[in-house]
Amino acid sequence: MSDLHRLNTQDIELGTTQVLQRHLTRHVGTARPISQRRLDFEFARPRLLREMAAEATGVFFYVYPGIAATAAFTVEKGNPAFGSSLTIGLAYCFGIALAIITCASTSGGHFNPAITLCFATWQGFPWRKAPFYIMAQIFGAFAAGLVLMAQYHEQMASLSHDLAGSGIDGAIATGPASVFITYWQPSGNGPGWVFLVEFFVASFIGLVIWAVLDPANPFVTPSAAPFIIGIAYACMVWGFSSFSISTNLARDLGCRLVAAMFYGRNAFSYKNYWWIGMFVNIPATFFATGYYELVLRDSLDRIGLGHAQHEDGDEGLVTHFAKHGLIRDVDIDMRYVRSKS
How does this protein lie in the membrane (predicted)? Predict the structure, then answer.
C-alpha cells in the first residue's frame, strides 16, 4: 500500500522524500470516506504539473519569508527593533523547513536547480524532468518577489525617494533592490574573492543536504531533516550576510527579474557580479555532492538497511563479498540465496 502514490509514474522521484519513507499513523480527526469522484479527479491530474506546482510553491515558501525579513530590516534602515541578520537567517531556516514539509512529498523537495541537476547526475532523477523543475523553481522565486513588492511598495518607494535625494541609486547594495537579490557590499575585493565566498558557502549547504538525504545516515530522523537543512542555510546567512550570498540560481534569478522590473538594469549590471550569485552555486553543489558520493557515501550500509539493492540482486552482493574476501564459500552462499528466493 505504501507504493500506491507512485503508481503509473514510470520513475521514482528522488529528493527529500528519500528520508521520509515511513510515516506514523496520525489521528488528527475523523476523516470522511474518500469518494470515487475524488479518486478519479486525483488520478486524472497530470503528475508533472503537480510536481512543478510543488516545486514552485516550495521555492515560494523558502524565499518569501527570507526576503520579507530582509525587507523589514532594510526599509527601517537597520533598526534592530525590526530585525537583524539573526531574524533573516531564522526566516530562511524556517521557510526552507516549511517548504520541505509542505511540498516535498509531491515533488521530492529539490527547490534548487543545482540540487535537481545533482539528483539527475548522481541519483537517477529523470533528465527529461530537470528543465521543468528548474523553470518551476525560478517561477516560485519570481512570484515571491512580486508578492513582497506589492506588500512593501510604499515603504520601498519611500526608501528609494530618500536615497534619490542623496543622489544614490535604489539598485545598490544598501537600496531597496537589495531586498531581492545579491548585491555585494562595497569593498576592495575583486570577483575572485566573491567567487570563492559563494563557492564555499554553496558547497557547505550542498554537503549538508546530501548528508541529510542519505537514508543510511543514523543521525538524522525524518522529522528533523527539514530543520537541519534550514539550519545549514541559516548558519551561512549569519556568517556571510555582511557582504551577501545567493546559493540558489532560482532564488537569485527569479527575484533579480523582479528587481529589474522596478529598479532597472542595475539589477544585473551593478559591479557585474550577477553571474556569481546566479551560477556559481551549481559547480559548488556538484563539488559538494561529488565529494560525498566519492568519499563519504557507504552504499553497503544503504543495502544493509534496506534502502537500496545491488544491481544484480542478492547474487551480485554475494559475488561482491567473495571478490573482496568477506566470505569464503561462494557456492554455499549462492545456494542459500537461491533457496531464499
Answer: Multi-pass membrane protein
Q: Does position 337 have pLDDT exceeding 60, yes or no?
A: no
Measured between alpha carbons, how far is residue 273 from residues 67, 190, 233 in Å?
20, 9, 21
d(CA 267, CA 272): 9
pLDDT for 327 beyond 80: no
Q: Based on the fold, state whether residues 334 and 282 are members of the same structural domain.
A: no
111 and 138 assigned to the same domain? yes
Let me know whether 335 and 213 are in one domain. no
Same domain, 322 and 224: no
Answer yes or no: are the C-beta atoms of 74 and 88 closer than 8 Å.
no
* Helices 313-323 + 330-340 axis angle, to 10: 160
Give the side-chain half-sphere CA count within 13 A for 303.
14
- Assess whether pLDDT exceeds 90 at residue 176: no
- Residue range 58-64: average pLDDT? 96
Do residues 296 and 313 both lie within one domain?
no
- Distance, CA of 186 to CA of 203 (rounded, Å): 24
- CB atoms near residue 158 (< 10 Å): 12
The predicted-structure confidence for 74-128, as pLDDT tens digits, reads as follows 888 767 778 888 999 999 999 999 999 999 999 999 999 999 999 999 999 999 9
Residues 176 and 296 in one domain: yes
Residue 34: partners with Cβ closer than 8 Å, 6 or more residues away:
none
Domain region containing 315: 309-340
CA distance 274 to 267: 8
Whole-angstrom distance, CA of residue 325 vs CA of residue 275: 51
Name the percent of the chain lying above pLDDT 90: 48
